[in-house]
Amino acid sequence: MRGSTLQGFGGRGGIGLHPWLWAGAAGVLLLPALAMRFYPQAGVAWTALDFVAMGVLLAAACGALELGLRRGRALAYRAGFALAVATALLTAWVNLAVGMLGRAGDPANALFVAVLAVAVLGSAWARLRAPGLARAMAATALIQLAAAGIAMGMGRFAPVEVVLAACFALPWALAAALFRQAR
């Protein structure tokens, strides 16, 4: 397994993932442009600001993923880190694009900015070490559930919205479990 992609990521003797990672991110960013150009009836209408925001999100996710995959050697650590980054990216993207609750501009969506802050600050506090990351991701899962609970208490949102928002706690919890296993 010496020459495999994960073994060689950021090290000697392997292929490395980073060119594929960044090319994939560029491809994701290219999709709406292609849809707007060649399939206008799809209703994709991104502005320059949309492309910049998504570019920043993808760049942050790719940079974080590279950092995490280089930092940890254990497969559980790498899987936990990748899952946490993917969940953070999806949370930010959904919140910016359509809003986790109601519409994109609804003030209740600020609750999910707090969720992301717990994940990022908790990871920094843990210095990206597996035991601390396990606690940070578990706390993030709890904050995600608390945000959904607060939204339910507001009574302004459809039950399906609240349930979907609560479901985002699952990948945070799974990332915590993976980090616990990586100790």
Task: Provide a quick synopsis of the model.
It is built from eight helices and no strands. It is mainly α.
Can you lay out the helices and strands and say which pair or pack?
Elements: H1 5-8, H2 18-38, H3 48-71, H4 75-97, H5 110-125, H6 130-154, H7 159-167, H8 169-181
Helix pairs in contact: 2-3, 3-4, 4-5, 4-8, 5-6, 6-7, 6-8
What does this structure look like?
The protein is mostly helical. It folds into 2 domains: 71 residues, no CATH class; 110 residues. Helices cover 74% and strands 0% of the residues. The chain has 8 helices and no strands. Helix 4 packs antiparallel against helix 5, helix 6 packs antiparallel against helix 7 and helix 6 packs antiparallel against helix 8. The chain is flat.
Distance between the termini: 22 Å
Helix content class: over 70%
What structural class is derived from the secondary structure elements? mainly alpha
Q: Given the C-alpha coordinates, what overall shape results?
A: flat
Task: Give the assembly state of these chains.
Answer: single chain
Bin the strand percentage.
under 5%
- Uncertain ranges: 1-15
Radius of gyration: 18 Å
Count of discrete alpha- or pi-helical segments spanning 4 or more residues: 8
* Count of domains: 2
Beta strands, count: 0
Largest sheet: none
Average pLDDT figure = 90
Order of helices and strands: HHHHHHHH
